[in-house]
Amino acid sequence: MSVRELVVLGTASQVPTRHRNHNGYLLRWDGQGLLFDPGEGTQRQMLRAGVAAHDLNRICITHFHGDHSLGLAGVIQRINLDRVPHPVTAHFPASGQHFFERLRYATAYRETVRLVERPVAADGELDRCASYALEARRLSHPVESYGYRLVEPDSRRILPERLAEHGITGPDVGRLQREGELNGVTLDEVSEHRPGQRFAFVMDTRMCAGVEALAEGVDMLVIESTFLDDDAQLAADHGHLTARQAGGVAVRAGVRHLVLTHFSQRYDDPTEFARQARAAGYDGELTIAKDLMRVPVPKRR
């Protein structure tokens, strides 16, 4: 059975706390694992969350601030230590190539795994496989930053009552799906459009067109909400969002499940982030991320 879930490894912003590790998020998508923004301590959080190096197929870095990337060195070395049997692809802003190389070769180790570097230099599709396409959009932060969007291809949902009307049963159902037509009956006549699932990951940024494009129509949006309303000017000055802004994005984009994360250490009460996101009008499913929690991607529409 396919598994699609977010494993939260860390939720702090610049400074970790006793209860919040630096950033780290693993998206399990069927048989693949995409690791986003491995901050300091990610390797230990993976251990605590039951995430193995073998689970990783991609590493996606939004930008090269330490709380989003200092754990990369340890993760890469662990991938090689455990002799992961498949290639691992790394995406990161092309302007940070020198930072990536420094982290990749921070200390001596034996390379046993093929690590494929795929830097991001512009908006658009980065890669495509059978179950999804991975896209990137430029964000607005003091250093170059990109958000990521995963898009599953649309498909068709078979309608049993339509099959019965045409007397199609058993192996003929599979044949119809493969060939698109069977004895004059088309696939469209016995099925309906089924939109693919969508996931977006938006970290350090001010409000910008990239945020809106990434969030549009997604089933799950993982988005930073570093500040609360009282510190909105501080958020703008330092290239961040507030919880209310994140909630507003989710409303406009039609997001089904909103996951707020990347909280400043100045706040003790996480429920206030939820209250302000709701105040923006968001009435969908809402999660205030906590370290080591697992959040299922909403079921297909």
| Outline | globular
- Distance separating the two termini: 18 Å
Percent in strands: 25-35%
Order of helices and strands: EEEHEHHEHEEEEEHHEEEEHEHHEHEE
Could you please describe the fold and organization of this structure?
- There is one protein chain.
- The protein has helices at 42-49, 66-69, 72-81, 97-104, 160-165, 171-179, 209-215, 232-238, 243-253, 271-279, and strands at 4-10, 24-29, 32-36, 58-60, 88-91, 115-117, 124-128, 133-138, 146-151, 155-158, 181-182, 185-186, 191-194, 198-202, 220-224, 257-261, 285-288, 294-296.
- The chain has 301 residues and is α/β, with parallel strands linked by helices.
- The strands form four sheets. Strands 6-5-4-3-2-1-18 form a seven-stranded mixed β-sheet. It has a seven-stranded mixed β-sheet with strand order 7-8-9-14-15-16-17. A two-stranded antiparallel sheet has the order 10-13.
- Helix 7 crosses helix 9 and helix 9 (243-253) packs across helix 10 (271-279).
Produce a short descriptive summary.
By secondary structure, the chain is an alpha/beta fold.
Task: Lay out the secondary structure.
Elements: E1 4-10, E2 24-29, E3 32-36, H1 42-49, E4 58-60, H2 66-69, H3 72-81, E5 88-91, H4 97-104, E6 115-117, E7 124-128, E8 133-138, E9 146-151, E10 155-158, H5 160-165, H6 171-179, E11 181-182, E12 185-186, E13 191-194, E14 198-202, H7 209-215, E15 220-224, H8 232-238, H9 243-253, E16 257-261, H10 271-279, E17 285-288, E18 294-296
Parallel strand pairs: 3-4, 4-5, 5-6, 14-15, 15-16, 16-17
Antiparallel strand pairs: 1-2, 1-18, 2-3, 7-8, 8-9, 9-14, 10-13, 11-12
